Each structure stands twice: as structure tokens, then as C-alpha cells.
Please model this.
Amino acid sequence: MNRSKTELRVAVKTKDMAMRMLRDRFRSVIGELTVLLAADDARWRWFGLQVPAQLSTPRPVPAAQVEKLAAGDWLVTWQRGTHATRYRVQLQRPGETTFENLATVHGFEITLPPMDLPPDSVLQIIAANEAGEASPCLVVLSG
Model:
């Protein structure tokens, strides 16, 4: 049993060292490509990499929370959407079919002024950048 545990530990350490060496070698290849290829050169894809000059469409906000503050304000916070540079916060009241734009922010929270929101109002946070917008993250409010 002890011999098997020792062999396993040695194998894991060997794997970890090999992964570290591979990561370092790949980083040096990326460094060389930065010197050799233009930022908009399609050959970046030959190496399984994104073309640096092309923006990636942002990913959706994974989660958001809404909290009603003592003064009647609403604090809306959310997690970062990968590649997002801004976030649009929109509101849909019950019975309406469209969303109303409340704000566009560059951070991960906004304090909304006191509003009389009926139960089942929906806030959506949309991650966006110059390449486009992600699917919205929906939060149902309990007024």
C-alpha cells in the first residue's frame, strides 16, 4: 500500500512538472508569434489561438442579485461577464412586453432610485462590448 502511494505521488509530481514545462514552452511560442505575426493575421488560428485583433463577443452575466435598501433604493449587483466592457440594466414591469433601459454601467453594480415595482417585475443585465451583446441575465423582483 505504501509503495503504491509513493508511486502515485511521484507520478503526480512528474505530471505537474511536465505540465509546467509545456505551459512555459507554449508561452514562449506565443511570445515569438507576437513578434512574427501581425495582430490581425489569420495564422494565429493554426496554433489554436484567437486572432488578437478580433474581439470576442462577451459571455452572459452568470448571476445577479437585487437587494432593497433601507432608504427605498435598489442595489443591483452581478458577476463579471467574460470579455464584457459594459453592462445594460433594463426593467420589464408585469404585463409589459418590452424592457425599459435604466442605465449602462462599466462596473458590477448599480443603485437604482426608489421605484414602486410591482411583484414579478423583471430586471435584466446584458453584458456587452464592441463586438456585440450576450444573452441577458434575468432577475425577478419581489416588490
Notes: The helical segments are 2-36.
